[in-house]
């Protein structure tokens, strides 16, 4: 039997950092952010819909989508964000399911799905358990500004596009605290994986 873990968090709380630790242990990770980049490549179905909806001012010279430009639009306008989500999410869900099914068929005992909008998009039915990477809101803001060189306003508009991390904390089965160092985070994740291996049924 395969146990599927839904790994989530808020923007810049450390999902990719945790999923890299998980991958380093040979555990497969299905990554919604990576898939959401693949399904909007020029040859894919969602691409034409995005261009029709947002115009060619969101394109780079080579006709690929300018993610910074599209981000500026959708993180400042909830209606436009819903429109983009309605175009992109069905294709992302389909590919996530395809990858998870393939891992299941190949007999993996544990598969992790890294899904930033797991709770916002009601995708918990796709997973057996939910793990949340949590950082205190002030630290989340600081890490986002440092990583992406956003202004405070840009960073807050992205944070406010999601369910607050404090609310997600109430919904998750397991909380991975990420307020400390990277070494502490790695130790905690390795311990959690060990616990999961020893008690695969929950
Ligand atoms: C707006 C886009 C082009 C910006 O691209 P960019 O490369 O700057 O960011 P990236 O895709 O790496 O996302 C970074 C983080 O932003 C957050 N985020 C992304 N999209 C959304 C959204 N629609 N609503 C809320 N938060 C979001 C997530 O925490 C994600 O981990 C891109 O995020 C996108 O296409 N979003 C819509 C698809 C989506 O919802 N992806 C998230 C998981 S499926
Ligand atoms: N414990 C930590 N100590 C210091 N920096 C950290 C820690 N955890 C994560 N970071 C840094 O914080 C930033 C956000 O982490 P990461 O990119 O893993 O978040 P994410 O949740 O995957 O973000 P997104 O939602 O945008 O995909 C990165 O620059 C990362 O290196």
Automatic annotation (TrEMBL):
Reactions catalysed: 3'-dephospho-CoA + ATP = ADP + CoA + H(+)
Primary location recorded for the protein, binned into one broad class: cytoplasm
EC category: transferase
GO cellular component terms listed in the entry, alphabetical order: cytoplasm
Pfam families xref list: CoaE
SUPFAM superfamilies: P-loop containing nucleoside triphosphate hydrolases
EC number, as in UniProt: 2.7.1.24
UniProt-annotated binding residues for ATP: 12-17
Function noted in UniProt: Catalyzes the phosphorylation of the 3'-hydroxyl group of dephosphocoenzyme A to form coenzyme A.
Biological processes annotated in GO: coenzyme A biosynthetic process
Keywords associated with the record: ATP-binding, Coenzyme A biosynthesis, Cytoplasm, Kinase, Nucleotide-binding, Transferase
Recorded metabolic or biological pathway in which this protein acts: Cofactor biosynthesis; coenzyme A biosynthesis; CoA from (R)-pantothenate: step 5/5
Biological source species: Fictibacillus phosphorivorans
Molecular function via GO: ATP binding; dephospho-CoA kinase activity
Entry protein name: Dephospho-CoA kinase
Localization per Swiss-Prot or TrEMBL: Cytoplasm
Coiled-coil ranges from the UniProt annotation: none
Higher taxonomy: Bacteria, Bacillati, Bacillota, Bacilli, Bacillales
Classification via NCBIfam families: dephospho-CoA kinase (TIGR00152)
Sequence similarity: Belongs to the CoaE family.
Superkingdom, natural source: Bacteria
């Amino acid at each position: 039997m395969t146990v599927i873990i839904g790994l989530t968090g808020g923007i810049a709380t450390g999902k990719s950092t945790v999923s890299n630790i998980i991958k380093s242990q040979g555990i497969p990770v299905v990554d919604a952010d990576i898939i959401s980049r693949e399904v909007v490549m020029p040859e894919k179905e969602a691409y034409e819909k995005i261009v029709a909806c947002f115009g060619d001012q969101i394109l780079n010279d080579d006709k690929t989508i300018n993610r910074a430009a599209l981000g500026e639009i959708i993180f400042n306008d909830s209606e436009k964000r819903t429109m983009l989500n309605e175009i992109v999410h069905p294709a992302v869900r389909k590919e996530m399911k395809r990858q998870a099914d393939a891992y299941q068929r190949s007999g993996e005992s544990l598969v992790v799905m890294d899904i930033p909008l797991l709770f916002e998009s009601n995708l918990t039915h796709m997973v057996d358990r939910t793990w949340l990477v949590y950082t205190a809101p002030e630290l989340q803001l600081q890490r986002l500004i440092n990583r992406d060189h956003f202004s405070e306003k840009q960073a807050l508009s992205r944070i406010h596009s999601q369910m607050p991390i404090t609310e997600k904390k109430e919904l998750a089965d397991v909380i991975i605290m990420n307020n400390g160092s990277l070494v502490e985070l790695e130790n905690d994740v390795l311990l959690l994986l060990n616990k999961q291996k020893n008690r695969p049924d929950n």
